[in-house]
Fold this protein.
Amino acid sequence: MLDSYKGSQPIAYKILKNAIINDKCSHAYLIETGGFYDSFDFVMSFIKSLLCPYNKTQKEDCGNCHQCEIIDSGNFPEIEIIEPDGQWIKKDQLQNLQKEFNTKALIGNKRVYIIKKADRLNKAAANSILKFLEEPDNNIVAILITDNIYNVLSTIRSRCQILNLKPTNIAKENISWLEKIKQILFNQKKELLDFEEIDLKIQKVIDFVCYYEKNHLNTILYIGKIWNDYIKTKEEIDMSFEIMINYYKDVLNYILNKPLEIFETSNEIKMIAEKNSQTEICRKINVLVELKQLIKYNINQSLLMDKLIMRLEEVI
Ligand SMILES: [Zn+2]
């Protein structure tokens, strides 16, 4: 419920909580996620607090009445979620929504629609919804979500109350390194991911770094087995480079006697720290950052990995 974000999102929490208590909700909110990993859950918590029939009769959020439970199950008829169909949000998705919302709410008196990735509203789709945003029925609340408000058309932006979420302060939270790296890498897409598979891939990337640190140039001979079998798509390769960069950064933190940012001190990190000077780790991080740039040009994966090992070994 909304109250659980009192600490992590103090400003947005206060604004929304006040709006609910005073029954002065804006008709349209544009929420900039700011890299806050839990942003969709934040939005759903707000909606629950808004729609719950007990929201004003008690001080604390409810969260467990019949209505709150239906909202949690995803079957509440007065909430509509719109997200891009392919690359863009299409005009007819919005027209269907408006048609549907022309009828009265069946339960309670408020209806809410969420537009995920509001920056994917192109002009035609946006135009079809401007009027709807502008002449709001008192009982309809729109919530638009985006990573960056400046990618949202200004005509939309100007019709919404803007709320910026605070980025997650990863270092301060007491969570495992695996959770931290997932939050860094997969900000918004959290609900779409198969986490077990990701855990395996992250582990494989770290295994690769350790294997390389022990076997150097010979790693090239085994790259198929230790890398290509697990890391396949462009996104995965990009993610893997990000993990390696962060891993070496934490090795550097270890060498400098600073607290590690993402990973935990392990025998592997100690081993790599012993084998490398500070300058050597910095050089390796630079190589990774530089080669990561090539991923977007669709470079062949085996070629990229050969290049990486050779560059790390300073063969080329
Ligand atoms: Zn409730």
The CA atoms of residues 110 and 157 lie 23 Å apart. The domain at 177-312 is CATH 1.20.272 (Zinc Finger, Delta Prime; domain 3). Residues 52, 54, 62-63, 65, 67-68 surround zinc ion (CB under 6 Å). The beta strands are 28-32, 79-82, 111-115, 140-146, 161-164.
